[in-house]
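User: what does the whole thing look like in 3D?
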Amino acid sequence: MNKQIIFKKRPEGLPDDHTWELQSNPIPEPAEGEVLIQHHYISLDPAMRGWMNEGKSYIEPIAIDDVMRAGAIGKVIKTNNHPTIKEGDFLTGWGGVQQYAATDGSNWRKVAPDLVPLPMYIGTLGMPGMTAYFGILEVGKIKEDDTVLVSGGAGAVGSIVGQIAKIKGCNVIGIAGGADKCSYMLNELGFDGVIDYKSENIQDAIHRECPDGIDVYFDNVGGEILDAALSKLRMHARVVLCGAISQYNDKENIKGPDNYLSLLINRATMQGMIVMDYTNDFEKAAIEMGGWLATGKLKSREDIYDGIENFRDTFLRLFSGDKKGKLVLKVLEEE
Amino acid sequence: MNKQIIFKKRPEGLPDDHTWELQSNPIPEPAEGEVLIQHHYISLDPAMRGWMNEGKSYIEPIAIDDVMRAGAIGKVIKTNNHPTIKEGDFLTGWGGVQQYAATDGSNWRKVAPDLVPLPMYIGTLGMPGMTAYFGILEVGKIKEDDTVLVSGGAGAVGSIVGQIAKIKGCNVIGIAGGADKCSYMLNELGFDGVIDYKSENIQDAIHRECPDGIDVYFDNVGGEILDAALSKLRMHARVVLCGAISQYNDKENIKGPDNYLSLLINRATMQGMIVMDYTNDFEKAAIEMGGWLATGKLKSREDIYDGIENFRDTFLRLFSGDKKGKLVLKVLEEE
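Assistant: Here's the predicted 3D structure for the full assembly of 670 residues, as structure tokens:
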């Protein structure tokens, strides 16, 4: 059987018992020209919360009674005369939160399972890594010696943002919650400074760590931290709007950045980015990221939980912050 | 005597009786190499409110007991061996709110009094016009067929923004307060649509006038109107932050744009601009603007009040909106 997480009810605030239903349905048969993929891992990302809301966004909302949308990685276990994909190939794509998916392979890409661990293909070499790469380089336009502040600095996107900025010769300050994450950013990732938003006044800490101001702020969180960062922008600073995890569960009461006029005073730019816009450049980025991984310049950390039954509890770790690096759910049941 | 408006007390909220003092002091003597300018007109601009606040901004705050900072235009009535400026020359520069200024002429520029009326040199061909020109072209990056929304659309900056956008083939919607200003934008300036924020629900009106969304929003006001505009951005839209007149008199309670995540969803950019950054390009812009004025493509309207004694009451018209076009104070006392 194919265990699936079915989207049943749009949540107000955090998802709860009524948001999804776990169903067991027959494993689909691939139609002519299709393949059947057995999922190994599912990617859990903050953006998934946004896709659950009604209304216009950068992507259609998930429909009620559909399989919950998510990135996945798995192995082809059957093909029905697919011209290029073979049994045993590993693919990553929008498989959804389920154990099996039948597809014609469009929008899936092949990965090499012997090169890096599979979960890394949905993390550092997947959407979060690509978001970091294009966000900090193309939108943030970092230059050597820039002071770069990144929130969610120990997370799937932020940890890569900070490391790329280090590779490019920037002074990097990471913000995260808790001593463990701060120690990780400082000692493992090599950031120049860290801020623990759970134990420090964020405004004071930004003044301490960025005494001459911020050239690039990469925002994954929104809210108070965005406002504090705006208050310390340097001339011609760039604010990369990548996410707003502090705001996703209270859509009716989104809090705008009261310090937005700092953009005016400092001739600064705040720009949103969506990683899908860079799809055509993923391969080029993957080659460069692969090189950094191979030479130890870039570190990748995945936090892997087990069992599709645990989807909701694992997903909620994105919002409690109780996770280390890229959050991944293993849905393959080993025999 | 030289009547001067002296800055005495930083206001909370709107300036009042205690903010300035009118003094009569001796007319200054130009030192060796200086000239004495008799001011004809003073420019009244929203930015002046910002200069009165303490603290870091894009320019030093006005010091207590200094002459109130303002742009001015006047005639040289005496020179003390200035190498290039002659008696009878007309100059515009930061003369301040007073009737006479002695200066070595640095940062002043000569104007031709017979070419256009003097007040136009501190309006359409001065800071407001330059702000409009560089803001909509360099920051807004308008292209033919863009839908351009401009707030303060009947004002010194907004009226020029909208007209330049029309010249460039855009679809232009102007926002202003009251039927008179709306009729001016529609019938005199040739805008394609208008919104009266005093009598309409701004959100509904933007949906009506920009059914397919906004490519460029030029913001002179902030607050609710900025928020409503953000909610209708098109993909890759540009928001030009030029001013925030709704926010200038309540510095402690600036209201950020709650819809800022529209920048993310639409990969849009919000960028601040300060006209002083473009000083080196003013001449080039003035030539192009002069051509548009000469051929009737660009219309300029000045609202001129008389008497330095009326400075405060006239200045407050900027915030009540009770003015038509560029606000100018005549300080020359005709004999």
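In plain terms: Chain B has two domains: 2-123+301-330, 127-276. Chain B touches chain A through 32 residues (CB under 8 Å).
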